[in-house]
């Protein structure tokens, strides 16, 4: 098999032959043409086109434009006269991959050609993967090749046309939001509102008025009547994010909405009907909350009509290459970054990480890596995985385990704080994230001077923290 196919467009016969011979001896298949007009038909089969800029008839720059107009993807190297940097820059702006300034050594020629050829073959390989992705492993903008994700696509397809309540469970950053939106977008309700409610962000008393609305004068400060989120979503979909954090008294009202599609605004005794589809999401195991009495069993069963469980990224590593390719393409375009492709070795590097922050962490890592990469292709060294906050640091054998000046104790405390932050102050939840018992966490907190209550105090409801 040849190392690739190259077209050389050069009107100087001698130079063209020298280039041709040199590249053929390096294992490439080479076509030569003395003019752009003669070269153009040969360009369709070339991986790389080397062209002089000043040619009789069509110029090298025009040739580049012609290639682009025809969708020919070959990498272009331009040959410029000594001292004509301006035209080289112009050619690069038009999309040329590199340039050779006359006179150039054959060594330099080989180096430049090898480099452009490598980018080309990677681009072709990545394109092949993207085509595969488009056809089979994508649902809207959700990427997934793993059996688990494809099963989820299938479920979304089946439930979207119905009004069935869906409960989406999965760690932070696995794509719960995206899935909820996809269900709405594929439902007959797509033209009606999609209202997202973050149950963690709202204090208990505000949550009730937000969800169900209030009448003027219902409480101090209620200066005017205001419809709630459920009313706003009439005919559409309500997405209840972090449902595990909903306080008990509101759980009762949600149950009624799910059972009877009825509610009252605060300060009103007029019962209102509402037609909503409810999708809920949780990043904690709701069954544990059930057992601890923090979540109503009847509400749980009403929500869990169609369960969708999204596995963490570390349990579906086969999705990583496809997600990475997708993010590289999308983000490099958005950012206008120099790096536009990712090497297989860099993808291997991504596969070794455990992604505690799941797809969101992968997306952020790719974004950071693209911005900082010095070349067209992301290499393993360009992959900038952030110091992990809730997993074991990924380090090589030679590197010190902890960053300079850090102590194990400090890392432990950081992880504990992060877990508490993610669990919104709920210690049982934080303890589970850390793989500790509640008492073990309390002990550590007391050592950090962050614990006050007695060790056996019963757990309060989730939203009271
Ligand atoms: N399968 C996927 N394909 C493409 N992008 C994804 C996929 N899964 C997640 N993402 C992206 O990762 C980010 C996090 O996803 P999302 O917000 O849906 O996660 P989440 O499960 O709702 O997280 P949290 O629990 O923190 O709210 C988003 O930017 C989303 O676009
Ligand atoms: Mg979310």
Task: Please tell me about this protein's structure.
- This protein folds into four domains: 5-123, Rossmann fold (3-Layer(aba) Sandwich); 139-311, 3-Layer(aba) Sandwich (Rossmann fold); 322-357 and 366-382, Helicase, Ruva Protein, domain 3; 408-464, Orthogonal Bundle (Arc Repressor Mutant, subunit A).
- 44% of the residues lie in helices and 14% in strands.
- Helix 3 (60-69) links the parallel strand 3 and strand 4 (75-80).
- The protein is elongated and about 95 Å long.
- The model is unreliable at 390-397 and 454-465 (pLDDT under 50).
- The strands form six sheets. It has a five-stranded parallel sheet, with helices on both faces. It has a five-stranded parallel sheet with strand order 9-12-15-8-16. The protein has a two-stranded antiparallel sheet with strand order 6-7.
- The protein is built from 18 helices and 18 strands.
- The termini are far apart.
- Helix 13 (320-335) packs across helix 15.
- The chain has helices at 13-25, 36-43, 60-69, 85-93, 106-136, 147-159, 176-185, 204-212, 229-232, 248-260, 286-291, 297-303, 320-335, 344-351, 358-372, 408-422, 427-434, 438-447, and strands at residues 5-9, 29-33, 48-52, 75-80, 98-101, 138-139, 142-143, 166-169, 194-198, 213-214, 226-227, 237-241, 262-263, 272-273, 277-282, 306-309, 341-342, 377-378.
- It has 465 residues and is an alpha/beta fold.
- Bound molecules: adenosine-5'-triphosphate (ATP) and magnesium ion.
- Residues 176-177, 241 line the site of magnesium ion.
Short description:
The protein has 465 residues and is of the alpha/beta class.
